[in-house]
Write a structure and sequence with these properties.
The chain is of the alpha/beta class and about 230 residues long. The chain has helices at about 15-25, 35-45, 60-65, 85-95, 105-125, 155-165, 175-185, 190-205, and strands at about 5-10, 30-35, 50-55, 75-80, 100-105, 130-135, 135-140, 145, 150, 175, 215-220, 220-225. The chain has two domains: about 5-125, 3-Layer(aba) Sandwich (Rossmann fold), CATH 3.40.50; about 130-225, Arc Repressor Mutant, subunit A (Orthogonal Bundle), CATH 1.10.10. α6 packs across α8 (about 190-205).
């Protein structure tokens, strides 16, 4: 697990939280506890956890699952009592976005399952932390952006928008695609809101914002990051 990153535990059960934190600590893992989804988003800030463990006695954490920052993060449903977790419950969890379901297992079994998931995640999806396109550089771990060597301060949404452009330079994103990428599918937001963020982003990264050379408008379609 990347140094400094912590498994996020979502539970309002204090005794369960303490037990899990001790189990993870004894196994060499850092962990954070959030009592609900809002607290989870606040707790993690701009740091993406390597895995999220959700106490299913209190909900499904669907808002977290829809967060664009967490799309590649494994979500694990934890059922404390096997009597509460039937085959249909586990199947429902997997259908609704969880990557695995753990039902009444020992601390050692829980750690073993999580260790296997994190190991598989590391092999299947090596994380990319640096992007460099046409003078724009982004460091995800440091949450830094420079343009021609000049540091640029971006809001969280501007940072996410630029990240998606950098991941697919020269690809044209429709406004709706970009809204889905940054705010999540089904989020009620007008396309004009994206235009406002694009305008603000251009003010910060373009030499002449009125005549952009990086983020350009493709008339009638959307936007793209032009590389040359």
């Amino acid at each position: 697990m990347t140094k400094g990153k912590a498994i996020l535990i979502v539970t309002a059960n204090e005794s369960l939280a303490q037990s899990l934190q001790k189990t993870f600590s004894d196994s060499g893992y850092r962990s954070l506890v959030a009592t609900d989804e809002s607290a989870a988003l606040s707790e993690m800030g701009q740091t993406v956890p390597p895995l999220i463990l959700v106490d299913r006695q209190q909900g499904k954490a669907l808002r977290l699952r829809q967060n664009p920052m967490l799309r590649s993060v494994p979500f694990i449903a934890l059922w404390q009592l096997k009597s509460d977790c039937g085959q249909e419950d586990c199947a429902d969890d997997l259908e609704e976005g969880f990557d695995d379901a753990i039902c009444e297992q020992s601390p050692r079994q829980i750690v073993a399952r999580i260790r296997a998931i994190l190991r598989r995640q590391q092999y299947e999806s090596p994380s990319r932390t640096l992007y460099s396109v046409g003078g724009i550089r982004m460091n995800l771990e440091k949450h830094e952006v420079t343009v021609q060597g000049r540091p640029v301060e971006l809001t969280p949404k501007e940072f996410q928008i630029l990240k998606y452009f950098l991941e697919s330079p020269n690809r044209v994103f429709t406004r709706q695609e970009m809204l889905n990428c940054v705010w999540g599918e089904g989020y009620a937001l007008e396309e004009h809101a994206l235009d406002v963020h694009i305008h603000s982003l251009r003010q910060k990264i373009e030499l002449e914002p009125a005549r952009p050379t990086f983020i350009v408008t493709v008339r009638g379609v959307g936007y793209k990051l032009r590389t040359g």
